[in-house]
Amino acid sequence: MRVTALAGDVPAALASALEARGLDRVHAEALAAGGAAVALLVEPLDEPETSALMRGAARAGLDCHTGDGWALVAGTLARLGGLARPDPSAPLPDRLSLALGRFLHERQGEALAWRTARRAIPLERSCVVGILNVTPDSFSDGGRHLAPDDALAGARAMRAAGAAILDVGGESTRPGAARPDEAEERRRVVPVVRALVAEVGLPVSVDTRRSAVAAAALEAGAEIVNDVSGLTADPRMAGVVREAGAGVVIMHMRGDPQTMDARADYRDVAGDVAAELAERRDRALAAGIAPEQVVLDPGLGFAKHPAHNLALLDRLGGIVALGHPVMVGPSRKRFLGAVTGKPVDGRDAATAAACVAARMRGARLFRVHDVAAACEALAVADAVLGADGEGGGA
Predict the structure, then answer these.
(1) Average pLDDT, the chain
(2) pLDDT digits over 55-69, tens only?
(3) Catalytic residue among 333, 347, 359, 364
(4) Cα-based distances in Å from 24 to 13, 74, 312, 383
(5) CA distance 204 to 39
(6) Cα–Cα dist 390/119, whole Å
(7) Span 241-255, pLDDT tens digits
(8) Where is 161: in which H helix or E strand?
(9) Is position 342 annotated as part of the catalytic site?
(10) Which domains are present in the chain?
(11) Contact (Cβ atoms closer than 8 angstroms) between residue 172 and residue 139
(12) Is 374 exposed, middle or buried (0-12, 13-18, 19+ CB in 10 A)?
């Protein structure tokens, strides 16, 4: 699917484009004379996509004209942005919302990068985030990196395999996991963060729901906060992120690790998750966090059954359409075991496949345990997307 901008202040170009799609010249010139700030030509469209686009344009207060396999939607960028945002009661087809969201994100001049407390991380290509859990009880790698020397060795191996970011967590968030107290979480996390910043050189993210742990890790050199609660667990977290200028991952979860499995009840999982993420993103922006600091994560495995996770991977378009980079974290999770029948330590190939599926639907960041496998698979996905010029799976 292609989305082409035809500026409203160049009516001759707009009229020619419409005439080439079957409108007579007089009709084309009349439509082109409307003088909208931006006119988007969307094609090819099937009949359900055309109908959905017409309904969405009407709700957003946009002009919409359609023909055989194409539609012209005209209005201001602000109204067009409203069209791309998900509406669970009347969602746009995923292929359409993905194409519109990607186009508008680029049109609004937002660089394809993620701003952290120390740098802008480029996202033109896939960005692999290596998981470094400094916990005794994480479901896959618990106990492997508890000692700072072990964490450093693991981080160096991830860097050599192609990781662009390291994500350090001191609390297991597997279903039913017991939560360490704040002092213990800080004791696990802060020395490792300090050592990674000093000796490995990659951007470091801290995976925590506690603002005090986040603040201590940021002071030690971390530059990203990855909050599985989507900034809802600790009312001070948004302020910590804002004051540090840190990058932030806003993830979708309902409840907490002890209760989330019981809350996996959705009318439409893709639409519901996108809408709930939009609400959390809006609260973050209202708290003073800049849009370019924000990455969104659908929270695979968090308050989701296996079928929910597969649907979210297939229908990432509604989240990409929110206009921020998207991270996915499928690594070794239960839904991959449900698909393949493999135990936790046999799910790295399935993880890489899930990452590729997400990349083809617009995700840019991929949080994994096996960095080498994911990097190799995503290099192929990037090459395919670069070869056809689509850049995101429309």
Answers:
(1) 84
(2) 888 888 888 888 888
(3) 333
(4) 15, 19, 43, 41
(5) 41
(6) 27
(7) 999 999 999 999 997
(8) helix 148-161
(9) no
(10) 2-84 (no CATH), 114-388 (3.20.20.20)
(11) yes
(12) buried
The DSSP call for residue 325 is: -
The counts of H helices and E strands in the chain are: 15, 14
pLDDT band at 10 (very low <50, low <70, confident <90, very high): very low
In this structure, the number of other CB atoms found within 10 A of the CB of residue 200 comes to: 19
The answer to whether 367 is a known catalytic residue is yes
Handedness of CA 312, 363, 293, 301 (dihedral sign): positive
**What does the DSSP 8-state code read for residue 180?**
P
Burial of 345 (0-12, 13-18, 19+ CB in 10 A): exposed
Position 186: which residue type?
R
289 pLDDT band, cuts 50/70/90, is very high
Confidence of residue 105 (pLDDT cuts 50, 70, 90): low
| Mean pLDDT of the region 159-182 | 88
Q: Which amino acid is at 361?
A: R
Copy the structure tokens of residue 214. 């986040």
Q: pLDDT at position 42, please?
A: 86
Nearest to 368 by CA among 214, 227, 165: 165
From the number of C-beta atoms within 10 Å of its C-beta (0-12, 13-18, 19+), residue 68 rates as exposed
Q: Which of 115, 144, 186, 367 is catalytic?
A: 367
Angle between helices 77-84 and 94-107 (to 10 degrees): 150
What is the percentage of the chain residues whose pLDDT exceeds 70?
A: 79
Best CA proximity match to 315, nearest among 379, 360, 248: 360
